[in-house]
């Protein structure tokens, strides 16, 4: 080692941000809107419930070929005046600006309206780390033919400002913890500091007196977002064990078991998805694989098994996924 230098701090493993966002939106959709789009939240009749329209949305985007990852959700809700509407949530989780972002928002919007003939609101949440990336509209014009599409947008990095971060710290909205975890995971380069933030967020749940089931679910989401090097993760767990003993709330054992169960299920799912993608490539070629990749990788194991059985006798891809 060169004199006068020191070892760099351990880097954190690459975190998976889009998957926990999809799950967080399903579990806490009203809380998500209340925190980030309060005016829209106030217009919805929550007593009517919500409907997640994953199948309908996948029909819109299935043909899109992209290597980028997104956390998108299409949700059916009812307004206070009784009107049924759909809300498209797009969460941009990558750090690089994308020039086609606004155009894709417009494309998804008009395709949903055209195919299903329902009112649609498209909302953007920018969870990336590029402060200057703030698309709010798509426009195109040829002579006097002019298109302008504006959409509500929230930039999560704005919550890193001291005043707004303080609002998250004291918020009674559980989705505030998801936002805080996302911001710290994106901005904190030092793994030891990230470990401190992870423990701080977990401790907030206990201090707020959340019920056991809620703590377990939020723990899993935060743990999914904030990944630590193995040694620091072990330190974090020991710190949490000690804290739980002091609080007389031994939840971590259950959390770890939930993580093990989820990991085993996820491993089975990934294996079945890989096999199906390989078979699809062998029988129909890479273009068909690209067209159905998103649908396959987001399907449940039972569905994957059913599709794998159909591929043996299928003459076209459509007969597999109908």
TrEMBL record:
Starting at the broadest rank, the lineage of the source organism is: Bacteria, Pseudomonadati, Pseudomonadota, Gammaproteobacteria, Chromatiales
| Protein name in UniProt | Transposase
């Amino acid at each position: 080692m060169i004199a006068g230098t020191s070892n760099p701090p351990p880097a954190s493993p690459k975190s998976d941000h889009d998957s926990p966002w999809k799950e967080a939106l399903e579990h806490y959709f009203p809380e998500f809107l209340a925190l980030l789009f309060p005016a829209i939240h106030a217009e919805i009749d929550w007593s009517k419930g919500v409907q997640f329209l994953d199948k309908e949305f996948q029909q819109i985007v299935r043909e899109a070929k992209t290597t980028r990852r997104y956390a998108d959700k299409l949700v059916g809700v009812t307004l206070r005046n009784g009107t049924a509407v759909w809300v498209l949530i797009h969460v941009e989780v990558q750090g690089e600006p994308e020039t086609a972002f606004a155009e894709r928002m417009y494309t998804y919007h008009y395709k949903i309206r055209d195919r299903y003939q329902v009112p649609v609101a498209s909302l953007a949440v920018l969870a990336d780390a590029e402060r200057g990336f703030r698309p709010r509209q798509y426009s195109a014009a040829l002579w006097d033919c002019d298109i302008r599409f504006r959409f509500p947008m929230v930039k999560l990095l704005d919550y890193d400002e001291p005043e707004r971060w303080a609002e998250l710290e004291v918020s009674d909205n559980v989705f505030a913890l998801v936002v805080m975890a996302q911001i710290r995971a994106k901005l904190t380069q030092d793994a030891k500091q990230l470990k401190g933030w992870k423990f701080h967020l977990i401790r907030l749940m206990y201090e707020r007196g959340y019920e056991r089931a809620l703590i377990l679910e939020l723990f899993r989401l935060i743990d999914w977002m904030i990944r630590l090097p193995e040694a620091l993760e072990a330190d974090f767990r020991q710190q949490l064990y000690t804290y739980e003993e002091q609080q007389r709330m031994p939840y971590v054992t259950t959390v770890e078991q939930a993580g093990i169960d989820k990991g085993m299920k996820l491993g089975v799912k990934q294996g079945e998805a890989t096999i199906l993608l390989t078979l699809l490539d062998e029988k129909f070629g890479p273009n068909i694989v690209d067209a159905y990749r998103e649908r396959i990788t987001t399907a449940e194991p039972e569905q994957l098994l059913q599709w794998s059985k159909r591929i043996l006798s299928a003459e076209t891809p459509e007969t597999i996924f109908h």
